[in-house]
Amino acid sequence: MTGTIALQGGGPFVANDDLDRRLLASVGADKVVVLPTADAFERPDRLVAASMNWGERLGVDVEALMVLRRGEAMEVGAANVVRDARAVYFVGDQPMHLRSVLKDTPLFDALRDVLTNGGLVVATGGSAAAMCDPMVDPRGGAFTLGLGLVPNLALVTEAEGWSPERLHRTRKLANTTFAVLRTGDALVRTAAGWENVGGAEIHGDLP
What we know:
The chain is built from eight helices and 14 strands. By secondary structure, the chain is of the alpha/beta class. The protein has a domain at about 5-130 and about 180-195: Rossmann fold (3-Layer(aba) Sandwich). A hairpin with a 6-residue loop joins β7 and β8. It is globular.
């Protein structure tokens, strides 16, 4: 892999402007494809509006790709939009839905191609948790299968909203490297290795 993966703890398009600016410059991206897939049953339009304001601040064009259901992730056209992108952002807080939409689809294959070709993939909050395997199940804090774009790593995201008891239980259940990210924290993986932005709490060795 020659590309960059950034897993952000929360605050899509508001909490990581400095990091986003640096990451986009590092891959030479002047356009970002944004997928609000994990908010399909909430208000994905709000995330799209936030992404447009963010794009204006950072000086990049934003294309919203409204892949909200599995059938849309199976379409060749949507996969090609992702494959041709230098930077792809996933936002939304329903990791179970994101996994069900993307797993074993042409669009997910295209996401791997973005990284193979030296591009940037960013996921925030629940979307970041879904990119890993295992994935923390937000319904109870136990573990389930994730997408595996980053294997052997589990994330708690938006950890400031977790009770100490729930977080302690999830830590005890972890049998892999486990990271706790609050809004503003991020883990960034490049060909050179991992960078911990903001002081994420990490248990074990990053893969």
